Automatic annotation (TrEMBL):
Keywords: Endoplasmic reticulum, Membrane, Signal, Transmembrane, Transmembrane helix
Organism this protein belongs to: Phellinidium pouzarii
Protein's UniProt keywords contain Chloroplast: no
Entry similarity comment: Belongs to the OST1 family.
Keyword Membrane in record: yes
Protein name: Dolichyl-diphosphooligosaccharide--protein glycosyltransferase subunit 1
Length: 487
């Protein structure tokens, strides 16, 4: 803890001076790989870094403002390590015209030591349909833009950027100009579905307003994409923990949007049937997709405003013990009631029950339950613009502690009442924005619940049943009286 505070203080000082001070690192090599897709673009950048001073341990990453705005997941690891490196987000720095992120290396480096850092980011809403409207039978093409150079507060010996398209059919890509200072070869090459920019050599410190203005340039890739661009504009998850019944119930209300090009003209069911018949479905039309549900789910339901959607299929897998590796998941195929054209929306509800023992553990030492609540169900290549995850605890749960894996935008506590509750259940809601596949994880909730509270629900039910019994026996007596009259 103390080490942490001291480090933080040091960090801030280091940062205030960093732009002017002589830097403590140099990048031996940078390789950025961009995986293009519809809603989510994954970017992996490898930095081979050399320390210029003994004791260097805070390495800064820089993203241009447009890049930072699109980036919703940011993680750094040492090469071949599992645990991410601790990061500090410094926000916008006017002097460098970039957003700065500092990675605190686990060990200080000696002069001339080198280390390989892997930066992984996920960008959302980074591609857009171009043209913005197409006919039902047309192919969809998307555009993606980024900066030519990876920006860094340190000089770089050599860097390159590989952009991998989802299809080798690339309509166009930017040819950089005025880069003779960095390469004498062709600045861009295409091979199959990959466009490579660079290698570029001897790039000075680039996280500087002057570099952004004079040297950095935009590059655009225009590519074919054969899968629908899926966006969940809103997701509301309710996770209800019930010890009585030993159940975790998850219900997701989902507002799905096809973010591909708008449909030009009217939708033709005939054209759609012909495509299906000829087995040449247009990539931009959203027909069906599969989601992975946990093992051991039961009573899976998928409904929309009309009712049960019976065209869906579930392949369920049985429960396996907690912590088992390589377990098989259950798969649910979600087929909207109508094919979703670009710009169209579809809202629906998916829910399931699962044995609580698959998610909960009891900590004997402090008498608490700890439950791992999954944050989201992964939809293929889909961004969740706004998410609300409401965790409904058992009635009478106290000493509540919550551990989200990353910071929510906000958290709200409330009480939730359902049928047969006497006091209401404590609930906590978490709000997030721009969630991606890399945000799948668990919110851990810990709480205590007394033995009496465990019994509250059965007792409420017992009281109700007893009441019914009294009523029905009274009715029976009455009934007998009526009958005896008839005799
Ligand atoms: C660091 O870089 C130098 C020169 O580039 C190389 O000779 C050396 O093997 C590298 N060390 C490590 C640990 O990678
Ligand atoms: C809803 O549809 C599923 C098929 O997806 C079916 O198995 C289930 O019985 C249906 N439920 C109701 C209540 O109709
Ligand atoms: C789809 O939903 C978005 C907001 O979620 C809305 O702006 C848009 O108008 C809707 N599209 C249609 C075709 O209803």
């Amino acid at each position: 803890m103390h080490r942490h505070l001291a480090l933080l203080a040091y960090l801030l000082c280091a940062f205030i001076t960093y732009v002017t001070a002589e830097h403590s690192f140099e990048n031996t090599a940078i390789v950025r790989t961009v995986e293009l897709a519809g809603s989510l673009v994954h970017v992996r950048t490898t930095f081979v870094v050399k320390a210029l001073e003994t004791g260097s341990m805070i390495y800064a990453f820089a993203l241009g403002p447009d890049e930072a705005e699109k980036t919703s997941f940011f993680e750094v690891r040492l090469k071949n390590e599992q645990t991410p490196i601790e990061l500090q987000h410094f926000g916008f720095n006017a002097q460098s015209n970039t957003y700065l992120y500092a990675a605190i290396l686990p060990n200080a480096l000696k002069k001339n030591d080198n280390v390989t850092l892997e930066l992984e980011t996920v960008q959302t809403h980074a591609t857009y349909p171009w043209p913005a409207a197409i006919g039902q039978n047309d192919e969809m093409t998307l555009k993606y833009e980024t900066g030519l150079f990876v920006l860094s507060p340190y000089p770089t010996s050599v860097q390159r950027t590989k952009i991998r398209s989802s299809s080798p059919r690339i309509k166009s890509y930017t040819e950089p100009s005025n880069v003779e200072a960095f390469t004498l070869d062709a600045p861009v090459t295409k091979s199959g579905a990959t466009i490579t920019y660079g290698p570029f050599s001897n790039i000075p410190t680039s996280a500087l307003a002057s570099f952004t203005e004079d040297t950095q340039q935009r590059i655009t890739i225009h590519f074919n994409h054969d899968l629908p661009v899926m966006e969940i504009t809103k997701m509301k998850r309710a996770a209800e923990i019930s010890h009585w019944g030993s159940n975790l119930n998850i219900q997701d209300d989902i507002w799905l949007h096809n973010a591909g090009p708008q449909l030009k003209g009217h939708f033709s069911r005939l054209e759609h049937q012909q495509q299906t018949y000829n087995n040449r479905p247009a990539g931009h039309v959203l027909r069906a997709f599969s989601v992975m549900l946990p093992t051991g789910v039961r009573d899976v339901y998928y409904t929309d405003i009309v009712g049960n959607v019976s065209t869906s299929h579930l392949r369920a897998s049985p429960s396996v013990p907690k912590g088992t590796k390589g377990k098989q998941s259950s798969y649910l195929e979600i087929r909207p009631r109508y094919p979703l054209m670009g710009g169209w929306n579809y809202s629906f509800t998916v829910g399931w029950d699962s044995p609580l023992s698959d998610w909960a553990a009891y900590d004997k030492r402090d008498g608490r339950y700890v439950v791992a609540v999954p944050i989201l169900t992964q939809f293929p290549d889909t961004v969740i613009d706004e998410a609300e995850i409401k965790i409904i605890l058992p009635e009478g749960a106290t000493d509540l502690e919550i551990y989200p894996p990353y910071s929510p935008i906000s958290v709200k506590k409330s009480m939730h009442s359902t049928y047969l509750d006497t006091k209401g259940r404590p609930a906590v809601s978490f709000f997030f924005k721009d969630l991606t596949d890399r945000h799948a994880g668990f919110i851990y909730v810990a709480y205590k619940i007394t033995f009496f509270e465990h019994l509250r629900k059965p007792m409420t039910i017992a009281a109700v049943i007893f009441g019914l019994f009294v009523l029905s026996s009274a009715a029976r007596r009455m009934d007998m009286r009526i009958r005896s009259k008839n005799y």
